[in-house]
């Protein structure tokens, strides 16, 4: 390739302009990155924060329950995405914040919950059962103040929830086989 | 020699007060000179206009203005003091469609919660060492959404495809080495013989 045959010597047809802003930040901070010592100190501060996550978690669980109640009560003015979002977004907050405040098991469970919510078509009765199971489990972890990954019990809870999700999708696939040929399934 | 963040100002926008405090503490531990804070996208935009920070770290889900809406304003609003300001978006979402949504709003880097101190540092270092060029098209203004390959990159490879490529490369190297040994043996050469020292009489016909 030569300098002259970039883009096969054809003019650019889509109107796009490129800018390279000056890198003021690099001039300010210099070179060399941060030392391991600073990064370890920052990580230690993060791991040893003494914030009580339970009030925050209760707030997100309450918001999720409101979403569940909304899904239970048919309302023609709400579309499917609004109903799903009202349940999904508090779940995302639980996933995001659990691990920041030492509740890793909450993050793991909520992550599975998000993966379920992201692929369902609608919040039907079967989906609601699964959602409530997730809600109840996360609540139990919070009330029991189970920090970390929850050990063997945590693993068992996760397995039970994931299996319930698989059963939901198997049932759905059997009910609507042709529509679900290419359906995404939640990963192991 | 290491980074000196003492002249850097970072605006953190987060509606969750404990999380806001954590981010602030981490950044101060990194040595950041000034950490500004706001509790939602609306307030964040106003502070950004007034203070013109070097970096903005914003949560996605906030009321009344979320991180995505605020990013669009910072990129496109005439009131914005710096349309190129690096924006790191924090969120619990990691699904591809959400990442694409954030990218299309003009976010520079995506930080999935929960994160470690090192994760946050990596995003900041990425902004400093590999700043994205900006693109203006009919529908989009923001950081170039393609990340160019760095031919001199010497860091760790983390993607499954990278690991598979490295494994394949190892196999090819071993096969090539065996093939070379075989050729040496057939030619009566020693491992210490340099190819340049030998006269080849090759008939290419």
How would you portray this structure in words?
The complex is a heterodimer of chains A (188) and B (205). By secondary structure, chain A is mainly alpha-helical. Chain A has helices at residues 24-29, 36-47, 54-72, 80-98, 104-117, 125-143, 151-175; one strand at residues 16-19. Chain A has a domain at 52-175: HPT domain (Four Helix Bundle (Hemerythrin (Met), subunit A)), CATH 1.20.120.160. In chain A, 61% of the residues lie in helices and 2% in strands. In chain A, helix 3 runs antiparallel to helix 6 and helix 4 runs antiparallel to helix 5 (104-117). The two termini of chain A are 45 Å apart. With 205 residues, chain B is an alpha/beta fold. In chain B, helix 2 packs parallel to helix 3. Classes of the chains: A mainly alpha (188), B alpha/beta (205). At the A-B interface, strand 1, helix 1, helix 2, helix 4 and helix 5 of A face helix 1, helix 5 and strand 6 of B.
Write the layout of secondary structure elements.
The complex is a heterodimer of chains A (188) and B (205).
Chain A: E1 16-19, H1 24-29, H2 36-47, H3 54-72, H4 80-98, H5 104-117, H6 125-143, H7 151-175
Helix pairs in contact in A: 3-4, 3-6, 4-5, 5-6, 5-7, 6-7
Chain B: E1 9-13, H1 17-30, E2 34-38, H2 41-51, E3 55-59, H3 67-76, E4 87-91, H4 96-105, E5 109-112, H5 117-129, E6 134-137, E7 141-143, H6 160-187
Parallel strand pairs in B: 1-2, 1-3, 3-4, 4-5
Antiparallel strand pairs in B: 6-7
Helix pairs in contact in B: 2-3
**SS strand fraction of chain A:** under 5%
> Uncertain runs of chain A with pLDDT below 50, 5 residues or more?
180-185
| Beta-strand residue percentage of chain B | 15-25%
Which oligomeric form is depicted?
heterodimer
Largest sheet of chain A: none
Query: How are helices and strands ordered from N to C of chain A?
Result: EHHHHHHH
> Mean pLDDT of chain B, rounded to whole units?
86
CATH class bucket of the domain at 52-175 in chain A? Mainly Alpha
Please report the number of helical segments of chain B.
Answer: 6
Backbone shape of chain A: extended
Work out the radius of gyration of chain B: 25 Å
Largest sheet, strands/sense/barrel of chain B: 5 strands, parallel
* CATH architecture annotation name of the largest domain in chain B: 3-Layer(aba) Sandwich
Under CATH, the topology of the largest domain in chain B can be stated as Rossmann fold
Derived from helix and strand composition plus strand pairing, the structural class of chain A reads mainly alpha
Note the total helix count of chain A: 7
Which CATH architecture of the domain at 52-175 in chain A is right?
Answer: Up-down Bundle
Q: What would you call the structural class of chain B?
A: alpha/beta
What is the strand tally of chain A?
1
**Molecular shape of chain B:** elongated
């Amino acid at each position: 390739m030569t300098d002259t045959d970039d883009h096969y010597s054809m003019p650019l047809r889509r109107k796009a302009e490129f800018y390279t802003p000056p890198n003021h930040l690099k001039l300010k901070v210099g070179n060399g990155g941060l030392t391991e010592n600073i990064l370890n100190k920052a990580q230690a501060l993060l791991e040893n924060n003494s914030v009580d996550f339970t009030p925050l978690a209760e707030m997100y669980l309450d918001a999720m329950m409101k979403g569940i109640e909304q899904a239970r009560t048919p309302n023609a003015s709400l579309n499917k995405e609004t109903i799903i979002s009202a349940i999904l977004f508090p779940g995302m907050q639980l996933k995001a914040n659990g691990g920041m405040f030492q509740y890793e098991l909450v993050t793991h469970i909520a992550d599975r919950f998000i993966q379920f919510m992201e692929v369902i078509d609608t919040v039907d009765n079967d989906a609601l059962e699964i959602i409530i199971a997730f809600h109840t489990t996360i609540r139990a972890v919070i009330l029991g103040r189970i920090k970390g990954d929850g050990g063997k019990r945590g693993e068992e809870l996760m397995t039970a929830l994931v299996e319930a999700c698989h059963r939901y999708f198997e049932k759905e696939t059997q009910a609507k086989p042709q529509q679900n040929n290419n359906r995404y399934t939640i990963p192991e | 020699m290491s980074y000196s963040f003492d002249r850097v100002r970072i605006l953190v926008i987060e509606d969750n007060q404990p999380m806001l405090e954590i981010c602030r503490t981490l950044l101060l531990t990194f040595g950041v000179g000034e950490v500004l804070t706001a509790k939602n996208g609306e307030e964040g935009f106003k502070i950004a206009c007034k203070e013109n920070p070097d970096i903005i770290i914003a949560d996605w889900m906030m009321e009344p203005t979320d991180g995505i809406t605020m990013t669009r304003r910072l990129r496109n609003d005439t009131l914005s003091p710096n349309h190129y300001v690096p924006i790191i978006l924090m969120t619990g979402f990691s699904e591809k469609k959400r990442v694409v949504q954030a990218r299309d709003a003009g976010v520079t880097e995506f930080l999935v919660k929960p994160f470690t101190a090192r994760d946050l540092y990596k995003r900041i270092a990425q902004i400093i060492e590999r700043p994205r060029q900006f693109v203006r098209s009919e529908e989009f203004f923001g950081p170039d959404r393609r990340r160019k390959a760095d031919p001199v990159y010497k860091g760790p490879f983390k993607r499954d495809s990278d690991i598979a490529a490295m494994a394949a490369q190892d196999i090819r190297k071993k096969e090539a080495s065996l093939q070379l040994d075989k050729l040496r043996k057939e030619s009566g050469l020693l491992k210490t013989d340099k190819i340049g020292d030998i006269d080849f009489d090759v008939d290419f016909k």
